[in-house]
Amino acid sequence: MKIALNCCYYGEKSGGIKEYIYNLVTNLLRVDQNNQYLFYVSVDDLDYWLKTMPQEAKYKIFPFPRKAKLKRALRQNRFWKKEFTTERFDIFHSPFFHLPNIEGCKKIMTVHDLRFRRYPESYPFFRRIYVQHAFKSSLQWVDRIITVSRFTKNEITDLYSYNPDYIVPIHEAVDHKRFHDIENAETILNELGLAGQGYLLTVGHIEPRKNYPLLIEAVEELNSSSPEQYQLVIVGKKNYKYKKTLQSIKNSEQVRYLSFVPHETLLTLYKNALLFVFPSFYEGFGFPPLEAAQFNIPSAVSNVSSIPEICGEGAVYFDPFSKDEMKRAIKEGIERRAELQKKAADNLRRFSWKNTAEQTVALYEELMNDG
Length: 371
Fold this sequence. Notes:
By secondary structure, the protein is of the alpha/beta class. It has two domains: 2-173 and 352-369, Rossmann fold, CATH 3.40.50; 176-348, 3-Layer(aba) Sandwich (Rossmann fold). It is built from 15 helices and 13 strands. The strands form two sheets. A seven-stranded parallel β-sheet has the order 3-2-1-4-5-6-7. It has a six-stranded parallel β-sheet with strand order 10-9-8-11-12-13, sandwiched between helices.
């Protein structure tokens, strides 16, 4: 069986999709010696691909650079049809929420969330229109959909009346190799002014769904009524509609905001946090609590979207629209810290990229056997 994967969004600054493609590709090559894989790489990301991917990953060039958005949108379908005529792959897998209409092969796409439908304002106008149209069109010819959570499967079923039998949830995971002790951790903490501090940590882009202003209010009220004083550290790049959050940060003496930080700094912040707090009210998967669990750091998290599905028993839950609930969960998370550390570590064992790859291969084979 020959499987083509569209990796044209695999670039150094591609965010979460980069992590998904990297871990899926590397683990497919490890667990599957029976099938043949062909990876399509964007012309302007080839150097990064060669630097990071295994040498045995056979690739071809996707000829449209990222900046040529209109040309890419208008001409890529013709390109894919030509490639199918040349390569005759059995399955075409798009690791994001749209794919070309290629006749003659089975088609799979991975949907990470429906943010473009739930929070369309988070996309530039023309990008939003394109993505919404492309996804809806793709539903007409896709053979199977992979979702990274049962939550996203249910959203597709509910919002698009799509047959749930054709949607397969396959969880993502955390790349364990990227989480390790940092030799200069003490120096990093000293430079940040966090050495010896019992700080709360949250990680994620600065945007409305992350719900940081309410979290800031909760921490301030918690500190005003308690002898213990907890600094809140927020790590996240500005994304969209971020001004309200930045104003809340500016008005608070108990918040330390760090935009982009190097990987070693992020690992140090995770490892030395007292508690991780995740107040988001919409996530397709939600990596940060699992990343915190890599260092035995427990979490207090929202009880909505995919978050309970991913965090299991390894966290304390709260209503993300209730400040009092946030305060209660933070206090409980700190009080039950030792117990939650073990539960978070146990929950983390449910997720591995090896399992993700094996389940994906099983889906490929099932789809071909179905004829």
